Amino acid sequence: MLNARARVSKATVRRIPLYYRAVQQLQQQGVKRIRSERLSEIIHIPSATIRRDFSSFGELGKSGYGYSVDTLVDEFGKLLEVQDAENILLVGCGGLGAALIENNFRRNPDLNITMAFDIDPAKIGTEIGGVPVYDFRELAMRVTPDIKTAIIAVPSSAQPQVIPALEGIGIDAILTFAPQPVVCLPTTTIRYIDLTSELQSLLFTAHHQQLAD
Amino acid sequence: MLNARARVSKATVRRIPLYYRAVQQLQQQGVKRIRSERLSEIIHIPSATIRRDFSSFGELGKSGYGYSVDTLVDEFGKLLEVQDAENILLVGCGGLGAALIENNFRRNPDLNITMAFDIDPAKIGTEIGGVPVYDFRELAMRVTPDIKTAIIAVPSSAQPQVIPALEGIGIDAILTFAPQPVVCLPTTTIRYIDLTSELQSLLFTAHHQQLAD
DNA sequence: AAATGTTTGTTAATCCATTCACATAGTAGC
DNA sequence: GCTACTATGTGAATGGATTAACAAACATTT
Ligand SMILES: NC(=O)c1ccc[n+]([C@@H]2O[C@H](COP(=O)([O-])OP(=O)(O)OC[C@H]3O[C@@H](n4cnc5c(N)ncnc54)[C@H](O)[C@@H]3O)[C@@H](O)[C@H]2O)c1
Ligand SMILES: NC(=O)c1ccc[n+]([C@@H]2O[C@H](COP(=O)([O-])OP(=O)(O)OC[C@H]3O[C@@H](n4cnc5c(N)ncnc54)[C@H](O)[C@@H]3O)[C@@H](O)[C@H]2O)c1
């Protein structure tokens, strides 16, 4: 419910999805209560961090008892707004884009890629996993006003054209796999997934680890 | 060259690939020298952070001049060991795995996925983008001793079986797309790419941003 | 209902990273 | 060579996040 008194740190925000997934799994297993110490073993986050994170959303637990799994599922579900569907468009139906559409976050029924765009005539007019692929030049014509979120899987070189077009139709949240940094509107929230960098920095760490990581 | 005197922070390690890519691009454009202030504009990292990061690898720059682009390309290339090929195996040739193989980090000639594994009989024995797909049960038989790195793109439920098998054949660096956390050997460096969590935390930030991000 | 045990929520301490700001060391022009 | 700039590299200040540790709050047992 996001008690106004406590600020939620960026680091905490990145962990909310992990908490949500874990408590959902516990609920499915029929577990009714969980201690921070036990949850720590499951998700490998220190129990003190868990308690601090949880407390920034209100007093979710009870001393000497722990947390009710049902309450946690409820609270984190509310935080992530899983009750209302998030409709998403995807740009760039290459290998990666197609894989994302096929998967379509099926474990999370609230996350739906509902339409896709490309510029390749061979792809325009087709469907991938039931999702229609439109011509990117028809973006404004095809997009429905409920869509505020986009995933970008086009080559880096195409990204500088794609982002302003998306902002022009009201998109304000973007997840992109093209690492080329762009300037975007102050109202746009953008996140880069840079697979090459992740691999390179992983390798650097692995090659240079004298001590454990 | 990783002067022993200065410790390289984790945050810095994550930025090395960004620096490497940027200076490579500058080199290709024929740029000979670069100031931290100018580089900051390109990659959107504060100039003070850039200077501190660079200085942890030695005195790469010159006062009143800046940095030589050639020197930087050289130094970061050495840090990332781009001179010797890194051969990689991939497990799980579904949508995501196949996309990774097709792409095969082609912008980085040192990074090569050289073989793939699956358990689906329909995939075993085929090739994807020239990369052979073997039966995962033949892992030990097929793997070559030069391979120390793996990418995992199997369903989360299969991951607990896959990781010990990889460790058993000497893999010590793992990049995985299955978010299910696992216990692994202390000598294994593992990194999770959790696409669903990235999207969910992005949406949380976008929905709750009263101030800019 | 008292005693015992458990686990939270939070204060304080610590750690890690970023940012400021400038002495220093070099460049560039003359 | 001398002067006027310029930009690095780094101490010091700041800020953010993690971790330790414990009083207070509740559960459980007897
Ligand atoms: N797949 C990987 O392993 C991998 C690894 C690292 C980075 N990436 C990045 O992910 C992104 C996508 O990768 P991919 O392998 O799917 O690439 P891909 O080349 O297979 O697909 C790109 C798709 O984007 C389409 N496209 C190009 N310009 C467009 C435009 N202006 N508007 C709409 N569509 C356009 C193309 O027609 C193509 O279908 C790239 O930026 C790539 O750098 C991918
Ligand atoms: N694609 C996405 O958009 C997306 C989104 C979020 C998370 N993920 C995660 O990425 C991973 C891969 O996703 P995907 O869409 O490619 O899945 P997918 O189901 O298309 O492919 C999984 C592949 O793994 C193979 N496999 C299963 N068990 C195996 C085993 N024990 N050994 C070897 N191979 C095995 C299957 O035969 C299949 O080919 C999953 O963990 C998924 O949760 C994917």
Structural account:
Chains A, B: Residues 18-57 bind DNA. Chains A, B: Modulates transcription in response to changes in cellular NADH/NAD(+) redox state. Chains A, B: NAD(+) binds at residues 92-97. Chains A, B: This is Redox-sensing transcriptional repressor Rex. Chain A is an alpha/beta fold and 213 residues long. Chain A folds into two domains: 2-78, Winged helix-like DNA-binding domain superfamily/Winged helix DNA-binding domain (Arc Repressor Mutant, subunit A, Orthogonal Bundle), CATH 1.10.10; 86-196, 3-Layer(aba) Sandwich (Rossmann fold). Chain A has eight helices and ten strands. The first copy, chain A, has helices at residues 10-28, 36-43, 47-55, 69-79, 95-103, 139-142, 159-168, 195-208; strands spanning 33-34, 61-62, 66-68, 86-91, 111-118, 127-128, 131-135, 149-152, 173-176, 189-192. Chain A has a seven-stranded mixed β-sheet with strand order 6-7-5-4-8-9-10. In chain A, helix 7 links the parallel strand 8 (149-152) and strand 9 (173-176). In chain A, helix 1 (10-28) packs across helix 4 (69-79) and helix 2 (36-43) packs across helix 3 (47-55). The first copy, chain A, is globular. The mean pLDDT of chain A is 95. At the A-B interface, helix 1, helix 5 and helix 8 of A face helix 1, helix 5 and helix 8 of B. The structure holds nicotinamide-adenine-dinucleotide (2 copies). One nicotinamide-adenine-dinucleotide (NAD) sits between chains A (91-97, 117-120, 123, 136, 153-156, 158, 161-162, 177-178, 195-196) and B (99-100, 103). The structure holds a DNA duplex (30 and 30 nucleotides).
